[in-house]
Structure formats: C-alpha cells, structure tokens
Amino acid sequence: MKISIIVGTRPEIIKMSPVILQCEHLGIPYFILHSGQHYSYNMDKVFFEQLELPEPRYNLDVGSGSQAEQTGKILLGVEKTLMKEKPDVVVVEGDTNTVLASALAASKLQMKVGHIEAGLRSYDKTMPEEINRVVTDHCADYLFAPTEKSRQILLGEGIAQEKIYVTGNTVVDAVFRNVQLAEKKGNVLHELGLKKQQYFLITCHRQSNIENRERFSGIIEGLQRIHKRYETPVIYPIHPHSRKKLQEFHLDYEGVTLLDPVDYLNFLQLEKNAKVVLTDSGGVQEEACILGVPCVTMRNNTERPETLEVGSNVLSGTEPDKIVECVTWMYNLNKKWDNPFGSGTAGKQIIEILKEVVV
Ligand code: UD1
Ligand code: UDP
User: Fold this and answer.
1) Which ligand is nearest to the CA of 40?
2) Which of 79, 101, 224, 282 is deepest in the core (most CB within 10 A)?
3) In total, how many domains does the chain have?
4) Are residues 266 and 200 in the same domain?
5) pTM listed for this prediction
6) Could you tell which of 267, 285, 302 is best to mutate to test the pocket of ligand 2, judged by most ligand atoms within 8 Å of the CB?
7) Ligand nearest to C-alpha 241
8) H or E segment at 144?
9) What pLDDT digit, counting tens, does each position of 67-100 carry?
10) CA-closest residue to ligand 2 atom 13
11) Range of 150's domain?
C-alpha cells in the first residue's frame, strides 16, 4: 500500500503528524504532498521541524488567492502529482481548500480517498470550510469520524455505514505527545513574564470574523474590556491575515498584546496555562477541551458541539458585551470534564484500518 498524505495549512500539519509518524514507525510507503497554501515560516516549516516530520516530497507552492484561484491551483497540481505517483490511497485532514481540492482531484482520478475529521458540521454555508467538509465527506471512501456524533451526522446524510470509522481526533494524539515537552521546552511564559492562570489567550483568524469590520472591531473591543476588568494580560498570537485586517481597518488594540504566530510547543504551553482561551479556531476549541482549560468561542455556531455538551466551551458571538459575559462565566467555572475526542490513538487506528481495507 502506498499512501499519499496531503497537507497545506498549519492545523493540517499538526493533526496529520500522528499519521505521518505512524507511517514512519511501521515503514509504510508514503509521501507527503504539500499544497503550499500556508508558506510563511511560522505557519508552515516550523511545525515540520518541531514535530520531526520529513520534508514533503512535493510542494505545489500555490500560496494565497481567492477561494476559486487557490482551490483551482491545488486541484491542478494535485491531479498532476497523483497521476505521476499513483498512490493506492490519498489521505486528507480537516476542512481547508487544500482538503477540498485534493479530495476532488483524487476521486475524479478514481483513487481512494480517506478523510480524517469527517462528519463535522456547522450548518453555516457562509464559511468556506463548511462547503469543503460536506463535499470532501461525499467524495471520500474512508471517513474517519472523531466522535459518535460525527458518525451519526454522516449516516444522516446517507453515507454508507461501512465507510465510517470512529477513531477519535488525531489532535488528541498530538496534544498527548507534545504537552509535557511543551512544559519543559517552551519558553514563552518566561519570555513574556506571564504567570500561570493569570492571562487570557486569544486566537482569531476566521474570514467570517476578520474580514467584517464590525465583527472584528467587536471582538477587539471585547478583548480590551476584559483586559481592563481583570487587569490581566490578553495575549494574541496573531495570524498574518488578521494582522493585515487589523491594520487595514485601523482598529485600536491598546491593552491587547500581539505576538507573531508561535510554534506548537510554545502555543501548547500558552494554552495549558491560560485562565480562559478565547478563539474562533477549530483546533483550539478542541485543544482547550483536552487540556481542561475553559474556552469562549467568538462565533455564533461551532462544528465541535461536543465541547459545548461537556461544558468546556461556550459561544459568545462577536458583540463585546456578550464576550465579556461569557468570559465572566468561564472565569468562575470550577468544573472538570471528560475529553470527548478519543484516547490519543487515532493516528494508529487510521493506519491499521487503511492497512486492512486498501487493496
Ligand atoms: C485557512 C483555512 C482555514 C484554517 C486556516 C488555518 C480555507 C478556506 N481556510 O485559512 O480553514 O482555519 O487556514 O490557519 O482553507 N498568509 C500568510 N502566510 C501564510 C498563509 C497565509 O501571510 O503562510 C496570509 C495571506 O495574506 C493570505 C491570508 O493569510 O491571503 C489567508 O490565507 P489562506 O490560506 O487563504 O486562509 P487562512 O485564513 O489561513
Ligand atoms: N497554533 C500554533 N501557534 C499559534 C496558533 C495556533 O501552533 O500561534 C496551533 C494550535 O495549537 C492548533 C492549530 O494551530 O493545533 C490551530 O490552527 P488554526 O487555528 O490556524 O486553524 P483551525 O484549527 O481553525 O483550522
């Protein structure tokens, strides 16, 4: 069996790392194809280095662009590469344009497609990710659902039960593998003079939030109010796209500490020790839940309802008053919950399943 593992963005590299390392461990023939959707050192290469992943055999260098431009370029590049390599199965993870284009290219070449993190739904088609998820799931032959809930969603859409495997989310594998290392090797708390449990951690990069001036300014104002109210640092490692929009909209962010995106170990260290995490990221909602840290999601919906059900996460939207209200609630939360995303063996399970089913 020869596997083509396709990645393109920061979360895909992190969440695919357990699968890649398992291929390495078992000596399974595979290669990495990188679309180049993310390309800045701190959004891309730093994760290969830190997670000790081999270099991609191919990088399509597609870079940034409109939805169609980026998706189209990946579609063309992936098709060419897959025709040359003829893998037995193509594996993608998540909901980015890289995932959509790769699944489309592979399935149109009649190649088998495995989709990791299948069955997530926000039911919000204004987000490009929702379209990417739905189409990818319906192209896939092997759907690796993180939870029973996601399996039920797939069944409800008419996907055959034989194609669906509940494995947990590979993000758990990545967190378990790296969290202790993060505490030992991470230096960000020390460098910023932060005390454990005495700061808020922010990520915010969704196009639906940052490209809309009203929503983005609501978020920034909410963060400023939290900073004033708790007299506590508000730490925001900012995605390059969000930094661009912050400047373009001339938003005043006094009181919010902006950092360039940080590497994975430092981010885990920041996450594990934060009082509350505020985010619009998918992976961060999951990681906060796994690490036992309360999370406020600055959106009106989430494709990770498991986090709401266990009580690790609440939805605040982007109005400053509502953000402050949700933070107050989570700040005083004195509650433990079980991690709903599996036992940290998803990477191993996925490779075992592929070994059995791919002929
Ligand atoms: C993409 C995914 C999103 C995911 C996120 C992870 C889609 C539709 N969106 O969003 O689901 O949560 O990645 O972070 O696939 N840029 C850089 N350097 C980079 C990459 C991007 O400066 O390495 C800047 C460019 O200005 C670019 C902008 O960020 O135009 C947006 O990048 P893009 O890849 O289109 O989408 P993300 O917002 O990163
Ligand atoms: N992350 C990181 N450094 C940062 C911000 C995030 O390493 O400065 C990691 C984080 O631990 C998580 C992943 O990036 O695993 C989430 O990626 P992102 O928020 O970009 O995408 P999403 O999950 O929303 O698709």
Assistant:
1) 1
2) 101
3) 2
4) yes
5) 0.98
6) 267
7) 1
8) strand 142-145
9) 999 999 999 999 999 999 999 999 999 999 999 9
10) 11
11) 3-169+342-357
